[in-house]
Amino acid sequence: MLKYVNTGVVFQEIPDETTLTINISNCPNHCPGCHSKYLWADIGNPLNEESLGRMINEFGSDITCICFMGGDNDPEEVERLAIWLHGQHPSYKVGWYSGKQYFPHFLNKNNFDYFKLGPYLAHLGCLKDKTTNQRLYKKTAPGVFEDITSRFWKK
Fold it and tell me: What integer is the mean pLDDT of 24-53?
């Protein structure tokens, strides 16, 4: 079961979207230098259709995207919720920030509009650093994903 600790409406995680981020706990990655170590613990409230429905009712048209921040402890459930969101609330884009190096081979990328891959490595920096190992991908057509990481870099 996925659990979430908190949410936020942000403008920087997914370019060109007003994103509801959902911080998921029980992170198995434990990246050195992690800025959200509190998410390593198995804490929070159940993340399911009911809780997502409440969030959508609260934010409505103020958001354009819903992004799962974590969930590497149960990627199948992240995908299941993404499929539910696309089916029940098709006006929203769906993103997933994973700390894994590779997209799980047993999931279908097409169930996401955006996904970020890569553990946080302090010496390489985060998405805004040109040296980062992390990558953000945007679906541009079914089965086609563009690396848009450079959109975070200052010119």
Answer: 95
